[in-house]
Amino acid sequence: MTRSCEEMRDRVKSIVFKPEDRKTLDLTFGPGIAADLVGRTPEALAKAEKEGRLAAPKQLSNGRRYYTLEDLTHIREALGIHAGKAPDEDAVIIAVQNFKGGVGKSTITKHFADYLALHGYRVLVIDCDPQASTTTMFDIQPETLIDDEETLGQFLSPRSTFDNFRQAIRDTAWPTIKIVPSSLGLQDAEWDLTATLREGGQAVREGLQRLRIGISSIVKDYDVILLDPPPAMGFLGLNVMAAATGLLVPVPARQLDYLSTIHFMDTIAENIEVLEANGTPVDYGFIRIVCSAYTPSKPGENDMWKMMQATYANFLLSQPILASEEIKNATQAFRSVYESKPSASHATYQRCRDNLDSVFGEVVQQVRQQWPSKSIAGRAGETVTSAAA
Ligand SMILES: Nc1ncnc2c1ncn2[C@@H]1O[C@H](COP(=O)(O)OP(=O)(O)O)[C@@H](O)[C@H]1O
Ligand SMILES: [Mg+2]
Questions:
Q1: For ligand 1, is residue 102 a contact (CB within 6 Å)?
Q2: Which residue intervals of the chain bear CATH 1.10.1660.10?
Q3: Taking the CB of residue 286, how many other CB atoms lie within 10 A of it?
Q4: Measured distance CA(168)–CA(178) in Å, rounded
Q5: How far is the CA of 188 from the centre of ligand 2 (A)?
Q6: pLDDT per residue rounded down to tens, the chain (389 residues)
């Protein structure tokens, strides 16, 4: 059975991935979207092009102008547009946390990473789930990492001597997204970490802080670091909670998932106590619940969404992620909607993207609040300081 599973996996991959086995991105943007992504008007871009501050955009044979991902980077550099944090600030580390499987953690991690990259942020994704679906969506095949010494599993395991976190970081098809992929060895790391319980004290504390320590060595190099946690709570999950500086909790608008979030909240609270009792206090800059799959026409889901609003109030993102065939189809092809062409009508595809954009836009507001150089409070503070000076 194992063999036939492996054969089938290889067949699926040979169909889905390009023959050279690397995903290639060929994203292009019209002037309107390009301007939106860099935060300028199309007129401002056209003016800069006319004045020679920007290279003229590429043109299709029909005369339509377009920009590539690299062009967006050049525009930002040429016009001094800087989306992310100041150099001396730390990356915001977001755990897409929920202890249940199938609630949309990996889907959100992948889509949010792509969204951030499109908007000019430098992103590191750390896949802490041995199931490795996020890793696969970034076109790294976890099985190929099995004999590799420089993996997350090796870094986390107290039995391993590998301790250069930076070496576990790989490239993706996106120039500004890097990934620390998951591998099958991550499960072994969980066991090794759990074994520190026998030693107690310092060993447990170090076991809980491994990921936090690894991230601290690269925390200035990225704007946002996204953690995709394992679905069960153990040492890996505690490492994720200890390393994060913000939580994004996906909850689908389904009765059972909603009810299990009560349990989730209890577990989070207990885990924070465990971390604190072991010398690893956490302090999250924000916690947000995101409704991760909502079908307004489905009986009960509308009531569920209202209940979520009543329960979580300001902790709930104001827009739910709509359940969408576009998302389902894209992820089945190991891609995000941002990397895919419409699978049905263009209007459906655009609705899906607009919905994701508005949800992620809200999270970005939370992210920016964490950087004094970007937050409203920080800017107000600066004015006060300079006035005083
Ligand atoms: N908004 C959505 N619309 C449609 N399908 C979705 C949506 N979010 C997630 N899915 C699908 O649900 C399944 C589980 O999602 P996944 O992100 O892998 O969950 P988790 O990482 O929490 O286990 C996937 O097949 C994914 O395509
Ligand atoms: Mg997952």
A1: yes
A2: 28-81
A3: 17
A4: 10
A5: 18
A6: 888 888 887 787 677 665 555 667 889 999 999 999 999 999 999 999 999 999 988 888 888 899 999 999 999 999 999 999 999 999 999 999 998 889 999 999 999 999 999 999 999 999 999 989 999 999 887 776 655 688 999 999 999 999 999 999 999 999 999 999 998 889 999 999 999 988 888 899 999 999 999 999 999 999 999 999 998 889 999 999 999 999 999 999 988 788 888 888 888 999 999 999 999 999 999 999 999 999 999 988 999 999 999 989 999 999 999 999 999 999 998 999 999 988 889 999 999 999 999 999 999 999 999 999 987 765 544 444 444 43
CA of 105 to the centre of ligand 2 (A): 5
Between the CA of residue 166 and those of 101, 152, 221, 359, what are the distances in Å?
Answer: 29, 10, 11, 31
Domain with CATH 3.40.50.300 in the chain: 92-375
From CA 246, how far away is CA 265, in angstroms rounded? 15
- What is the CATH number that goes with domain 28-81? 1.10.1660.10
As a whole number of angstroms, the distance between CA 177 and CA 225 comes to 10
The residue whose CB lies within 8 Å of the most ligand 1 atoms, and thus the one to mutate among 96, 98, 107, is 107
With the most atoms of ligand 1 within 8 angstroms of its CB, the residue from 331, 343, 348, 355 to mutate is 331
Residue that has been written with the tokens 């950087």 in this structure: 371
For ligand 1, is residue 292 a contact (CB within 6 Å)? yes
Give dist(CA 250, CA 197) in Å, integer: 30
Greatest alpha-carbon pair distance for the chain in Å reads 73
Class of domain 92-375: alpha beta
Q: What gap in Å lies between CA 344 and CA 353, rounded to an integer? A: 13
Identify the sign of the CA torsion 293, 283, 270, 184: positive
Q: Is 387 helix (H, G, I), strand (E, B) or coil?
A: helix
What would the two tokens of residue 314 be? 């300001």
Name residue 288's beta-bridge partners: 248
